[in-house]
Amino acid sequence: MTSTDARPTGNSMRRLAGWLDRHARVRLAMLLAAPMGWLVVAYLGSLTLLFLNAFWSRDPFTGQVVREFTPNNFVEILTNPLYRTVTLRTVAMAVAVTLTCAVIAFPIAYYMARVASSRTKGLLAVAVVMPLWASYLVKAYTWRLILSNDGVLNWLLSPLGLRGPGLGDNVIGLWLVFTYLWLPYMILPLYAGLERIPGSLLEASADLGGRGLTTFRRVIFPLVVPALVAGSIFTFSLTLGDYIAPSLVTTTQFIGNLIFLNFGVPDLPFAAALSIVPLVIVVVYLLVARRMGAFQAL
Amino acid sequence: MTIEGHTSTASRTDEAIHSRAPAELAVRLDGVTKHFGGDAGRRVAAATGAAAGEAVVAVDGIDLEIRDGEFFSMLGPSGSGKTTTLRMIAGFERPTTGRILLHGQDVTTVPPFERDVNTVFQDYALFPHMTVEDNVAYGLMVRKVPKAERAMRVRDALAMVRLDGYERRRPGHLSGGQRQRVALARALVNRPRVLLLDEPLGALDLKLREEMQIELKAIQQEVGITFIYVTHDQQEALTMSDRLAVFNRGRIEQVGTPADVYERPATRFVAGFVGTSNLLTGDTVRTVLGTGGTFTVRPEKIRLADPGFSHGPDEASATGTIREVVYLGPDTRYIVALDAGGELVVTQQNLETSSMEALSAKGRLVRLVWKRQHNLPVGEG
């Protein structure tokens, strides 16, 4: 007690701490003021602007943005078959990439979570995360080199009389690139999900007569579905919104390219309206994912 | 009720087993050892405090015969190898050397899903994504038992553990005791010939545990299946078992009926682990009993008397000072430092003693008196 009397600053700090201890709401406000400010101004603010822009239009003669409400952009998107085709193609690509990532990621995640020694597990975790440290652009360009006509892939395949997909107007190359780029985002949640399954459940299944396949189908898979959906949120939405990889490895159009092109025209209101499309798709996807318990798995 | 009731049923079953001739063996272990290396070894080493690095010997040359239909306990401290032994019987671990026979058939290399045993896990291991009903039906579903029969057997199993009406619940919405019952029903519904229980009551509170002990024993007698029960709780092992094995450092120290093990402990370890270790050794034995060797005296067999008390011809006695008094409610435990060296623990029922009187005995000079027949010789080990 005497020591606090001797130090008035310590004493007032203590009084402040005591006051804060009694006022939980003030503490919470202090904790969240900065991030909430950022979220509201920078994030929701720009989203609102995007949304408003989508209902404006561009004067075709002056090129100026006309700030009057019109649904014309959305009418155009919904009626012009080009946009429907590109949207469907993009969603199909996102689904294909997600499924491929899931199929490739599962054995790796299973090995990491349930088989590997703790040392191997650490090495694999580093190996999985390492590509995320390299720039996305570098990786995309590297794939251009791999897939190009005189690239590594064709060089490897030529003795077999085969050729790779190349960089032309097909989507196989893009599918490979996306799968490569987003694979870690599928492995990590799957790994966490598999590691969370108690070993005794697998033993119980075997004890009750379940062989490997039965145990997988009846116990492991149902328990890992939330983690799988969590991983698919990443692979799906990242594929849906990407415009750099498509512009680098294929001449085929995806939503991202189209939005980017309209920035260039420039028809910002139309680009904004087009941006709403993947946004809506992802929101729907997230709602479904939530129903499947994906957010408990994150 | 029924601590007395229990012991009597236990001994009755015991006689029944002894008189059944020739007793068929449910499980036989032949020189079974288990070494753990690598990660598993490190985990075991960390759990048991053994030196890490080298392969850890979890089970060290065990021979054991468990008779058909008996309630057999494997008792020992953590790291003594009892759970590893159980897991080898279940098939989750492969012995490093030795053989395991189930009903005369060598199953050493048979995977768990092909063994006619079922396990109740320590953490119950209920499938969280399935209802109680689906959990219990799992084994039958996997073995392709027809739907109608499956439903009937699941209903019976749930009735046996008094969980009728809980079919549609998920394990997450059950209490610990209820989960324990589901785990039991899920194993029993398959009608295994041997049921393995790995510290199944360890997570329950004392009251519930005592209830479940009685219930488990009753269920075992009803279904007549061999129960192999792993526990570190000596009281549990003594009340429930027909016979028990005491494990220590990967070896079996003694196999016998509860009375055998309690009244005739084969080794110093058994004397200490099953009951309180009241050992008389070395010079103390010579001074007090006039012979050599090592003896144990159970604390409840000793009574406190005045220092001047002269004991009868069939009695032994020793003087000492009460060093500590622990009041336990129904009993009081006195720790007495003997004048001849060493300590003995004495428990006395609080028939007429109040807690104040008991506690005030600390520091008093006393004479401990017990019948010579209660000196139990203990082997070294």
What does this protein structure show overall?
The complex is a heterodimer of chains A (298) and B (381). Chain A is mainly α. Chain A is 79% helix and 1% strand. Chain A is built from 15 helices and 2 strands. Chain A has a two-stranded antiparallel sheet with strand order 1-2. In chain A, α13 (255-264) runs antiparallel to α14 (268-291). The radius of gyration of chain A is 26 Å and the shape is globular. Chain B is 33% helix and 28% strand. Chain B contains 12 helices and 18 strands. In chain B, the strands form 4 sheets. A 6-stranded mixed beta sheet of chain B has the order 6-7-8-3-9-10, sandwiched between helices. Chain B has a 5-stranded antiparallel beta sheet with strand order 13-17-14-15-16. In chain B, α5 (147-160) packs across α6 (176-188). Mean pLDDT of chain B is 87; it is low at 1-22. The chains are: A mainly alpha (298), B alpha+beta (381). Chain A binds chain B through residues 117-118, 198, 200-201, 203-211, 214, 218-219, 222-223, and chain B through 38-39, 90-92, 111-113, 117-119, 121-123, 125-129, 138-139, 142-143, 186-187, 190.
